[in-house]
Specification:
Length: 95
């Protein structure tokens, strides 16, 4: 089983949300459809701008904690490695 650490952003790219899941497509869909109350719904975090995967849930949780502790500039650098243009990586998914 794969586990994912991901970063969602709002369309203006002013807000970043970091999360962890074992089903990235389902979780991103949940954010996009605003199915749950909370931070991502309040701040319109509907674009997947970064993700990484691992086969270990503990590693994913530890990585999520590590990313959440980072300053914004370091998160921005992390995103740039995978997604320099900050496009929604899930835009072509069937969700």
């Amino acid at each position: 089983m794969n586990y994912y650490v991901y970063i969602m952003s709002n369309p203006a790219r002013t807000v970043l949300y970091t999360g962890v899941t074992n089903d990235l497509e389902r979780r991103v869909q949940s954010h996009k459809l605003k199915l749950e109350y909370g931070f991502t719904r309040r701040y319109n975090c509907v674009d997947l701008v970064y993700f990484e995967d691992t086969d270990n849930s503990y590693s994913a949780i530890e990585r999520e904690k590590q990313i959440k502790k980072m300053r914004r500039a370091k998160k921005e650098t992390l995103i740039d490695v995978l997604n320099k243009d900050r496009v929604d990586l899930s835009a072509n998914w069937n969700i």
